[in-house]
Amino acid sequence: MPEYEDLVARALSAQERARSFTVDAARVSSLARILREARTGGTMLVHCAWCGRLQVGRGWLRLDAIGSGQTRIAKQLVRRSTHGICPDCFERVNRDAEANRAEGG
Ligand SMILES: [Zn+2]
């Protein structure tokens, strides 16, 4: 029955969204801890020079995904953090470089 399938599909996508919120919440709380440590000089933050995301544990978090109160703190920390490159940008930059090499001959 199509209506039933639609309902299941919607339930599944809602579950998927909820899961990604949980992951984000976990990242935000671990970011909060990292920010506290960084402010006291205990941790050196790394941010991606290409997309600007901050490294949080093994993940990379966009500043605008953080609550507004912490975005201000995070922005101050980005200025003091080390430039790095996240895996996504690394892959893209590598691909672009290879495309350029192929074009240039
Ligand atoms: Zn990046």
Task: Characterise the protein shown here.
It contains three helices and four strands. The chain has 105 residues and is mainly alpha-helical. It has one domain. A hairpin with a 2-residue loop joins strand 2 (54-56) and strand 3 (59-61). The radius of gyration is 19 Å and the shape is flat. The mean pLDDT is 79. Bound molecules: zinc ion.
Total strands: 4
Instruction: State which percent range the strand residues make up.
Output: 5-15%
Poorly predicted regions are none
Helix content: 55-70%
Distance between the termini: 57 Å
The number of helical runs is 3
Describe the sheet with the most strands.
2 strands, parallel
Q: Identify the strand order in the major beta sheet.
A: 1-4
Helix-strand category: mainly alpha
Which of globular, elongated, flat, extended, rod-shaped describes the shape? flat
Radius of gyration: 19 Å
Mean pLDDT: 79
**Please, how many domains?**
1
Question: N-to-C SSE series?
Answer: HEEEHEH
Q: Which small-molecule ligands are present, each listed once? A: zinc ion
